[in-house]
Predict the structure.
Amino acid sequence: MAERTLVQAVRDALAEEMERDPRVCVLGEDVGLKGGVFKATEGLQARFGPERVMDTPLAESSIVAVAQGLALEGYRPVAEIQFADYSFPAFNQIVNEVARIRYRSNGDFGCPLVIRAPTGGGVRGGLYHSQSVEAFYCHVPGLKVVLPSTPADAKGLLKSAVRDPDPVIFLEPKKLYRAGREEVAEGDGALRRLGEAALVRAGRDVTAITYGYLRVVTLQAAARLQEEGIEVEVVDLRTLRPWDVETCLGSVRRTGRVAVVYEANRTGGFGAEVAAELAERCFESLDAPVTRLAGPDVPAMPFSPALEQAFLPDADRIAAGLRRLARF
Amino acid sequence: MTTTADALALGLSRDQALAAYTTVCRARALDDRRFLLNRAGAIAFIISPRGHEVAQAAAIAALQPGRDRFCLYYRDFAAALACGFTSAELMLSAFARADDPSSGGRQTPGNFGSRRRGVIIGSSTVGPQIPKAAGIGLGLKWKGEGALCYVSFGEGATSQGDFHEGLNFAAIHSCPVVFFCENNHWAISVPQPLQVAGAGVAARAAAYGIPGVVVAGDDFFAVYRAVAEAARRARAGDGPSLIEAQVLRLQSHSTDDDQRSYRDPGELAAEAEHDPIPVFQHQLEELGWLSEAEDRRIRAALEEEIDSATALAEAAPDPDPSTLSRHVYADG
Ligand SMILES: Cc1ncc(C[n+]2csc(CCOP(=O)(O)OP(=O)(O)O)c2C)c(N)n1
């Protein structure tokens, strides 16, 4: 066990998986010599060589296409897209090629690969280094989508993603890369299964289902409401596709009130899917309308600190939303 | 004119040339039959290889099915046959039957795939196979077993960013890839001058520092020679090549298109006189490798083959609707 930040945990996961399995390789922009713009792959090229840790041309479509080609040849590539905002040039490769290859070949071909990308805002990245893209990929059968928010989850889930037989979009909340440290296990002891949510705070009044950076803010809001006598149960989804419906249903059946808290644009965001599923599945347990506390419907998070703050739900706003629900 | 000595110098035997000729005739006979079936309402949609068959068969003849990888595109029926697909299998896909080996009736015909044959399943999307082939080539280079990846596409596909990204990557890393453009000068209704600026597709190779050659797609031996040379380079570790085979599209883009609505009738009539199959037949006759009697025998046998392929596919079961959700993920 060692104390690790989230970005260190990502690097450890990659190093361990590369050590364990010679088929695992890393490719992307600046991942080699520099070790990635967030240093997630620092030291890996020196350790594993310029082929297994490859600096690619600045062209996302071919990063994903080449990763798929390698996967078809039996390798286990982990492609880095420098910012989730820049996954769109690769959208066709991800959605039409990678995600659908198993289905369109009637099971003859598979495509085990991981596409890692830093996601979300709050780091003064402006419109094009702050976007939350998970809803686009969660819409696609054939993909798995993971979005951890702690070092241990990041490591354990990334190791599982690398071993998964299907393509995984692995989104890392960049605001949490260096936000804190925790003890992280080594080797197979670190593994976390995809598709399992974590109940990270127990409470009997309201359920808050969240993921990514807003897990941190939701926990702050829950602590504040505790002082007012409102007990919030917080669930971190961790994996968005497939998501852990049962854990969420169990919590909502206990509390009767639920908010889905997410940073992405409200309309058509992944939280909207969670809200719809819960409304369908536990209507009879609900004492209040299923609620979304989400980012606003503006194109992306602006650069100005004032506007950035106005975009990102903070503890006050989340607490206010949860309070309303508790009193409904 | 290609002499016997020229052909033998290419490493081509009479048997290989006749096998390729049979493949070409098989593709044509299949196409004719699929058209009839389409017009009769028995099958939904086809794309025709008409005019491309000789170039396709020549390219695959210069490679090693079973060892190499093939990223084909939707017009590559002769190439697919040359890679080992049978008439019956392609008919099963035309009828979208459960036993269609490429996709079990999920994809439109022309998206060929077979892991055991090294044919990487296509999608109907124009262009994405090009950078994918670069990645496959990178993997083959790492394995170091001398295999290569062949990838084909039309000239319209070369307008896609994926064309640039694929050639750039493969050139940077000397990936063993043969890029094969079947330039029929039309992308549905858009003619080459509105698609490709400059001297043409092959000229673009210079920008990547790789060889780019233009060949007459109705000259079996010329295409074979160009692809064999590209394959030699790829296997020797000298990297990718781009070949532009000039062909004619002797049919509308697909059964949902009628090229008479946008093409000049005089030009269409003139092109119809330049079917590559009689050209290939004549070359083989001049070499003394094919007689008229032999040609009749080949074609008669193919008629029978297509009859039984059609009967088999017509009688074959549709996919079971309960399988709709299968193969989304590995565990399902
Ligand atoms: C990305 C994409 N855009 C549009 C289409 C529709 N489409 C299918 S084939 C085609 C023309 C392709 O022309 P070309 O690449 O020259 O090949 P050809 O069909 O002439 O052999 C178009 C526009 C498509 N399949 N994929």
